[in-house]
């Protein structure tokens, strides 16, 4: 079993890299020439592309890593629950929740948006950016989440 782990670890890392590149490509296409850059929600084919392709790629990634997740019950729709709470929010498992719920917007550090490859993927989810250098960031974040929650389905769910 230890030998299997040693052999499978580089294989899984390679699979992660090969899935990150198509995810980056999907995110780049979906956000290409989109006016607003986060201030206007993605709609139509752009949003469907993010929901289906990124969700499928993320599920595939976790399956390759050995995770099989079953959803019990019904996932609340956007109109039923514009804000989706995930707790304890402490690890990469949040990505599983995102994939299962249709790739909602997330609340993220502004610095994460400048990360190569993953910054583009994150930007396509239309995150609520939190700047730790801005003293008004907490108030701005609450205002943005409230605006999106009251948009009557214009914005995706916020997790």
Provide a short characterization of the protein structure:
By secondary structure, this protein is mainly alpha-helical. The protein has helices spanning 2-31, 44-64, 94-100, 118-124, 137-149; strands at residues 107-109, 128-130.
Plain-language structure description:
By secondary structure, the chain is mostly helical. The chain has one domain. The chain is built from 5 helices and 2 strands; from the N terminus they run αααβαβα. The chain has helices at about 1-30, 45-65, 95-100, 120-125, 135-150, and strands at about 105-110, 130. A two-stranded parallel ribbon has the order 1-2. α1 (about 1-30) packs across α4 (about 120-125) and α2 (about 45-65) crosses α3 (about 95-100). It starts with a helix and ends in a 10-residue tail after the last helix. The relative contact order is 0.16. The model has no long low-confidence stretch (mean pLDDT about 85).
């Amino acid at each position: 079993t230890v030998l299997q782990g040693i052999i499978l670890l580089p294989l899984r890392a390679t699979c992660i890299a090969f899935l990150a590149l198509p995810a980056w490509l999907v995110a780049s296409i979906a956000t290409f020439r989109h006016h607003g850059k986060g201030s206007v929600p993605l709609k139509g084919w752009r949003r469907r592309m993010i929901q289906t392709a990124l969700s499928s790629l993320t599920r595939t990634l976790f399956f390759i890593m050995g995770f099989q997740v079953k959803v019990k019950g019904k996932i609340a729709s956007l109109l039923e629950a514009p804000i989706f709470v995930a707790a304890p929010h402490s690890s990469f498992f949040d990505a599983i929740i995102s994939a299962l719920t249709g790739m909602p917007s997330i609340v993220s550090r502004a610095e994460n948006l400048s990360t190569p490859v993953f910054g583009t993927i994150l930007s396509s989810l239309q995150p609520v950016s939190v700047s730790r250098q801005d003293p008004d960031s907490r108030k701005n974040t609450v205002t943005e989440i409230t605006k999106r929650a009251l948009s009557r389905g214009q914005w995706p769910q916020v997790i």
